[in-house]
């Protein structure tokens, strides 16, 4: 008994000593932890719970547990769900690829000794800091079939957002414009971390600019690219506002993605059960996509991710 009491006293003393030494850092962390619990964890758990119910604001007495019925309806009976899932993957992959294909040459230019270089770097961030809704409204006006600037300068009358042949290129152009600054800044940060001595040694050995880019720049950029691309994938997956402002998922469901489908189900049809089921499936699909991406990156040598 005395030994057990001694152990308990020792544990209590260690806990009090630990709290006394670390209470200030933990108190600083407390607001962030509370925010995550209230505004992240609780909505996530509530969405999971609602996905097993038939809650609809238009049906009195709804809200009963139906377990997997919502998921069965989406995966088996909903003829639009799989098309929307394909749209989501297309939107994420195409947007991210375009952003980074353009960001690398842009960052290489901004990394040179240019006149007014800080100004050009600052102007690059304008699309990034502009609210997405405002940016979407600007692009929507530019794409207008009657009064848009694009048709005015091209002397055409194309309904850019109303035709199934032009709507996706238009959306991808807007998305690339919005997300490109982030990609440029990340690549530029990676470029500035490459020692200049590596290039000097390469040029002494007779390497051309292209050889130096292929043998030094790209391998050294790989860790930055792998992580920043993953972040861009997550941000693009949840980029609801751009598509909603420009097309609201139309024409029909031609440009609808999972986030817009969640909004349509929950806040237009007021079917919170099915809307929550779509949200849970979207989260699962994104996690699977990210795991596949991480596995593929590690296979090609990106061990820093």
From TrEMBL:
Keywords: Cell membrane, Membrane, Transmembrane, Transmembrane helix, Transport. This is Carbohydrate ABC transporter membrane protein 1, CUT1 family. SUPFAM superfamilies: MalF N-terminal region-like (SSF160964), MetI-like (SSF161098). GO terms for biological process: transmembrane transport. Belongs to the binding-protein-dependent transport system permease family. It is a multi-pass membrane protein. Its main location: membrane. Residues 85-293 form the ABC transmembrane type-1 domain. The chain crosses the membrane at residues 24-45, 89-110, 122-142, 179-199, 220-238, 275-294. It is found in: Cell membrane. It comes from Clostridium amylolyticum. InterPro entries: MalF_N (IPR035277), MetI-like (IPR000515), MetI-like_sf (IPR035906). GO terms for cellular component: plasma membrane.
